[in-house]
Input
Amino acid sequence: MNSEKLEQVWQEVCDQIKSYNNIDPTQVNPFFSRLHPQAMTEGILMLTPDNDIIKTSIELHNAQIIKQPHA
Output
């Protein structure tokens, strides 16, 4: 899958996350924009963070949200 399509899929995931009742939409972009899609296979999107601080923060506070099934 090309990088443009990966970015599109990741943007769709972020948009869906913003619609969740327990999420403050203004908090999605500051953190999730620091994650970059690298590959996708069988509905799994591999993301890499800008740095270890972002990685740790996402893993501690947002991993379950990202891992939810998306339409």
Q: What stands out?
A: Residues 17 and 37 are 16 Å apart (CA to CA). Residues 3-18 form the longest helix (16 residues). The beta strands are 35-41, 44-49. The chain has four helices and two strands.
